[in-house]
Amino acid sequence: MRRRDALPGLGLALGVTWLWLGLIVLVPLAALAIRPWELGLAGVWASVTEPRVLASLRLSFGAALVAALVDLPLGLLVAWVVVRYRFPGRRVLDAAIDLPFALPTAVAGLALTALYAPNGWLGAPLAALGVKVAFTPLGVAVALAFVGLPFIVRMVEPVLRDLGPEAEEAAATLGATRWQAWRLVVLPALGPALVAGVGLAFARAVGEYGSVIFIAGNRPMESEIAPLLIVARLEQYDYAGAAALGLALLLLSFALLLVFGAMQRRLRRGLP
Amino acid sequence: MAVPLGRRALPGLALGLAGPAAAQGAGALLNVSYDPTREFYRAYNTAFAAHWREKSGQAVRLSTSHGGSGRQARAVIDGLAADVVTLALAYDIDAIAERGLIARDWQRRLPENSAPYTSTILFLVRRGNPKGIKDWGDLIRPGVGVVTPNPKTSGGARWNYLAAWAWAQRHAGGDQGAAQFLGRLLRNVPVLDAGARGATTSFAQRAQGDVLLAWENEAHLAFAEFGQGQFEIVVPSLSILAEPPVAVVDRNVDRRGTRAVAEAYLEHLYSAEAQALAAKHFYRPRDRAALAAAGATFPDLPLVTVDAEFGGWAEAQRTHFADGGSFDRLYQPGR
Amino acid sequence: MRRPTEEPAWLRWLLCLLAVAVLGVFLVLPLAAVFAEAFRRGVAPALAALGDPDALAAIRLTLLVAAIAVPVNLVGGVAAAWAIAKFDFPGRRLLTTLIELPFSVSPVISGLVYVLVFGAQGWLGPWLEERGIQVVFALPGLVLATIFVTFPFVARTVIPLMQEQGRTEEEAAATLGAGGWRMAWHVTLPNIRWALLSGVLLCNARAMGEFGAVSVVSGHVRGETNTMPLHIEILYNEYQFVAAFAVAGLLALLALLTLAAKSLLERA
């Protein structure tokens, strides 16, 4: 038998939590999980393996992965600078990191499109170099990288702060160069946080709609993201098809979150 | 199961009473419409409110909702309490009727197929027409960027697609030629926006493409909004007669007791006043006097109809736009 | 002489400059674009756009939705944090994962699920319709979708902190005979208040700015079911670019204030 707990409130807290979770998240998601099967197993399979659907899933997951991987070094750089260095404007920099969290997605989408369109501030010089960003898969990746950056910085920052310079000092006394200390001491310690950050940025990016829809070209097979296809199916009154695609998207990103979670645990086990 | 459901509905009830749903009811009317009718219905609502006050002595508060035609129809199906729908194509109203919200014979309840105004599809090109675009055939030349929205999500885009198809059938060798033509045309499309308005913005504001396939009224509006002289309208040799239909949503008006005002709202669309207003907003009026008064605004060009050319909307939808239809096949890999 | 754990000065400055450049191009430039577009024709048209009755209605509705959604997530988030951080019970890992779940659900799906449950074609649709209750395309739908999207924010910020603090202080209070509520009020809450506040602020910012999910459950009726992000879309689609970016600028400004408040809190 379990020992009677000294602290009160587990029952109440759990009750409130499950009620909150159940009503807001689980019951509605159950509707999503049940709806597609009116198509039958074969129907569901056919509806999520259409070439156009597969192409959109490839784009959504591919662009999300590229964005998360681009965010990885950038986020690490920003976190490092904010934690380790003192320079004028550091506080502003630190506060600005959360901007994509706080900035409404539709606003971000409009602003990014205005920036990267061939006649925009950044789009015009890039177009002169022959690089097209807006209305291409590259534009999708740019928008997703924007959305994902804070996840990495915010995961790495606290770990870096906790780590402190002592371990590196020890490495230096043992004769390691700065680069060796960084590579062999700092990076492994940050590993789990980096993986967690990439996982979160990735999961968020896969389903992102508001900030992408304006900058993606929405061309089938090429620059059409999966959430847009869900909307397109709804507009053809194909509820089951929309729910099937939604469920597929959800299961895929959930599976990836599990993979990232496992990677994180493995990395953590390797730590002292 | 019964317990959580009941609990869940209670806050819904409380909020529903305080929320926007309660603001409607008698004396208020919701018109659920498609994208490019915003300016027209804003003007018409003012005119109708005055007309209704004069006729019945009652004030009526008119609200409108705009968006892609398919999305709007779906919202009504899912429970948006529209009194009247004024959408881009009959197929979308049929879809609402199929779920029992509107009588099946809705299209016969008002004159002219329940379409008080019509429109067609024209081209909008940049000043001086640098690519020399004169007709549908020019759209498939290499290097010509064509902007059109996605037919899966936009009613206007379906008219564009069918107009192109009708031209190609005559000039590019039947159905097979038309399919090839559309395939080449779509390869020239740099961005397929979700709605007609998005496409106009991409073309006019974001400098995408060389030609915009647009509703006649959108073309004129963009012409006026984005500065005269920036764009030119090109009239192709053939286009399609677009009949955006209107209908009263029977189930909603009966429940809310708004049938009289809803029916009057739609009937008044056929009045001389409303027809002149439609012409002013570049919709082709059915009324001959209003059409004549508009003069050269509406060029005369041969227009095919969906019924005669494609066997009606249900058939056109199945052949071209449903999953696995001709539009999807044009985007299959390996082509 | 520099310490062995410090990079050379040139490298430090280079890294700082790089970081500033990354954030500048990536985050600040889009923000600058919003304000540049809003004030393209001067300050007066931008302000006029905010005074429009439909814009005011959208602002009111946005604040109302956030004012309902945030407290719900605050209560739920704190309850979840208390259970997860202070106790060990079967299903704890599962619960933690489920709370994070809404982060990885596409906003479009979060709107869709409520349509599937409460829409006229959904599970409860006919039952609600008989009773004249409107959930989707009315305020309750907007609130539900917003709660879903901002679900994990409070729990996520509070759980790690409470886990780190452990349960010794509470146990001491319990031994001294403090009841549950007193303990929560005098021991736990003061310990987590700053994290709690910053979670609430982020939750609020996201609640006001959500677009995809509310777009699915809103009827897009001007002055009635339009939140600010939806109003921006409408204005944009009416070619009123200055007005659209003016409202966007106001939302961005609210986001900036949120971040400033959060940054001040963290310093305190």
From TrEMBL, chain A:
Spans traversing the lipid bilayer: 12-34, 61-83, 95-117, 129-153, 184-203, 239-260
Gene3D superfamilies named among the record's database cross-references: MetI-like (1.10.3720.10)
Membrane topology type: Multi-pass membrane protein
SUPFAM superfamilies documented for this protein: MetI-like
Domain ABC transmembrane type-1: from-to ranges: 57-260
InterPro entries the record matches: CysT_permease (IPR011865), MetI-like (IPR000515), MetI-like_sf (IPR035906), Sulph_transpt2 (IPR005667)
Alphabetically ordered keywords of this record: Membrane, Sulfate transport, Transmembrane, Transmembrane helix, Transport
Origin: domain of life: Bacteria
Locations listed in the record: Cell membrane
Subunit and partners: The complex is composed of two ATP-binding proteins (CysA), two transmembrane proteins (CysT and CysW) and a solute-binding protein (CysP).
Family affiliation: Belongs to the binding-protein-dependent transport system permease family. CysTW subfamily.
Its job: Part of the ABC transporter complex CysAWTP (TC 3.A.1.6.1) involved in sulfate/thiosulfate import. Probably responsible for the translocation of the substrate across the membrane. Part of the ABC transporter complex (TC 3.A.1.6.1) involved in sulfate/thiosulfate import.
NCBIfam families: 3a0106s02, permease_CysT
Name used for this protein in its record: Sulfate transport system permease protein CysT
Gene name of the encoded protein: cysT
TrEMBL record, chain B:
Keyword Cell cycle: no
Pfam family, one: SBP_bac_11
Signal peptide: 1-23
Protein localization: Periplasm
PROSITE patterns cross-referenced by the UniProt entry: PROK_SULFATE_BIND_2
InterPro entries linked: Sulphate/thiosulphate_BS, Thiosulph/SO4-bd
Keywords recorded for this protein, A-Z: Periplasm, Signal, Transport
Family: Belongs to the prokaryotic sulfate-binding protein family.
Listed name of the protein: Sulfate ABC transporter substrate-binding protein
Organism: Belnapia mucosa
From TrEMBL, chain C:
Keyword terms, alphabetized: Membrane, Sulfate transport, Transmembrane, Transmembrane helix, Transport
Organism, scientific name: Belnapia mucosa
Protein name per Swiss-Prot or TrEMBL: Sulfate ABC transporter permease subunit CysW
Subunit structure, interactors included: The complex is composed of two ATP-binding proteins (CysA), two transmembrane proteins (CysT and CysW) and a solute-binding protein (CysP).
PROSITE patterns recorded: ABC_TM1
Keyword flag Transmembrane helix: yes
InterPro entries named in the record: CysW_permease, MetI-like, MetI-like_sf, Sulph_transpt2
Transmembrane segment boundaries: 60-85, 97-120, 132-155, 241-261
Nuclease is among the record's keywords: no
Ranges for domain ABC transmembrane type-1: 59-260
